[in-house]
Amino acid sequence: xxxxxPVVVIFFLGHGCLHCAEQIKSFGGMAKEFEAxxxxxxxxxxDDMPGLKQSIDDYxxxxxxxxxxxxxxxxxxKAYRCYDDFEQQPLHGTFFIDGSGxxxxxxxxxxxxxxxxxxxxxxxRLMGL
Length: 129
Hints:
Blueprint: E1 7-12, H1 18-29, H2 31-36, E2 40-45, H3 49-58, E3 68-70, H4 75-79, E4 83-84, E5 89-90, E6 92-97, E7 103-109, H5 116-127
Parallel strand pairs: 1-2, 2-3
Antiparallel strand pairs: 1-6, 4-5, 6-7
């Protein structure tokens, strides 16, 4: 669905992570600015479908303005290296992927990246806008 389009991909640790909820709220609050720049947002959760539904129910600012994906098997997390093999646990990850599918910026960490304004500016710079 995102092929050929710039996208920010957010890996979050589900409804039980307060910092992740804050991150989704921060990025959701700037969804229109990302859209105006031609950049789509998507968030991938380590939750299963009931947990993902809980994240949706906990979001109090109306509908979450980005698609959410459940990845309880952590297959996508592992494909993007948002998984600590030693600790055997998923990690937070935020990626900017350009329209040709190249990862142009990434942050993988134990804490979620929560500066959407910076990432929007960086994505625009990387796209030459």
